[in-house]
Amino acid sequence: MRPILSRRGIGGLKRWLGAAALAGTALASGCSPTIEANAPSAGTPAVQPAAADTIGTGKVRVALLLPASAPGNAGLVAASLRHAVELALKETPGADLTVIVEDDRGTSEGGRAAAAAAVDAGAELIIGPLFAASVRGASEVARPAGVPMLVFSTDASVAARGVYLFGFLPEGDAERIARFAATRGKRSFAALLPDNGYGSVFGSALQRAVAASGGTIAAVERYGADAASLGQKAASVAALATAGGASAIAVPAGDDAPLRVGAALAAAPGGPSRVQLLGSGQWNDPRLLAAPALQGGWFPAPDGAGFASFSARYAAAFGTVPARPAALAFDATRLAAGLAARYGERRFAFETLTNPNGFTGVDGAFRLLPDGLNQRSLAVYEVAAGSARIIDPAPRSFPPRAGF
C-alpha cells in the first residue's frame, strides 16, 4: 500500500494553491542565446555566457517547457503560460523556486532537447510541455532521469507514471455528465460522437460510466468531417431517442453536431420533453449557449468563479486576458511551491504528487492518478436564456480511491 499524506498537510497545501483563474496572451521575452560550450581560442575575446532564462531565485529548481518558437499562435500561448508562472510566484510569498524556462519548439525533438537542458540544469520537476509531441520527446529524457512532469496536453496516450496530465480530460466530462444524468432518472443513453480520437475516448468513458450507474447505451453514431454525414447521423440518433430508445443523448463536440441533434429533437413531437441533451465542456461557448435548440441541455465544466478571479488578477498584472491553459501553469507552479515548502526531500515523490486527497486550484479540486491521468471536480450546468447556470455544484473533495 502506498503512503497516504495527511489531510492536514493537504489542507495547508490548498491554502497555498488558493482559488483563482485564467485566460490570455502577451508577448514573452526572447529566449536567451545558447551558451558557448567550448573555451574561446587564444587571442579571441572571451564570450560571456548568456544568463539562463529563469523566473524566481529559490533553491528548488523547476523547469517550464514552452512552445515559444512554435508556429501559429503557440508563441502567444507560451507567453501567457510564462506570465501565469510569474503571477503564481508573485502571489506565493516565500516560494523557494527557481523556474528554468526552455523552448520546446512544439516538436518531439524540441521537447527532448528542452528536457535534457532542464535536467542538466538541475530541475527536479518539469511543468509542460503543451503539445503531445513535445511531451513524448521530453518524457524520453525526464522519466529515465526520475524527473516528474506536469503536462498541459490532454492526450491520454502520453500519460504515464511520472508524466501527469494536468488539463481537463474527455474522460472526466463523460463520467461527470453520465453519473449526474443517472441521478435524474436517465437510464438509457445514445451518443453522437466525432469519428476521431476525442470521440473514441469520450465514448469509451461514457460506456463505463453508464454501466457503473446501472444504465445502458442504446446506440452510438459516429460522424465524419462532411456535413452530409453529420446531418444523417444526427437525424438517426434523434429518431431513435424520440421513438423511446433513449432518454438522453450525449453530443460532446463543440462543432455543429449538438445544434443538428437539438434541431431534430425540437422538430419531433414531444422530443425535447422526453429526451435530455448532454454535452461536454466544449459546450461552454457563446455560440452554442445562444442556440435555441440547446436550451435545457446539460454539460459539465469547472465552476467559473475561480477562473474569473484569476483572469482579473492576470489582466491587472499584464494588461491582457490569459490563454485558457494559463490557469494550469499557475496551478502547477503553486503546487510545486507548496510541495517544496512542506515535504522536504519527498516534495515531488510519486506518493506526494498522487496524494488521493488531491489539491485545490483555480478551477477547483483535482488529483493526479498513478497512471498519469487526473480527476477534476466539475459542476453541471444547464443551458438557459442564452447562458448557463449551475444545477449541480462541483464537489469540494474526492471519494476514496480503491487501494487506499
Automatic annotation (TrEMBL):
Recorded superkingdom: Bacteria
Domain called Leucine-binding protein: residue spans: 59-386
GO BP, sorted A to Z: amino acid transport
PROSITE patterns xref list: PROKAR_LIPOPROTEIN
This protein's UniProt keywords: Amino-acid transport, Signal, Transport
Pfam family, one: Peripla_BP_6
Protein name: ABC-type branched-chain amino acid transport system, substrate-binding protein
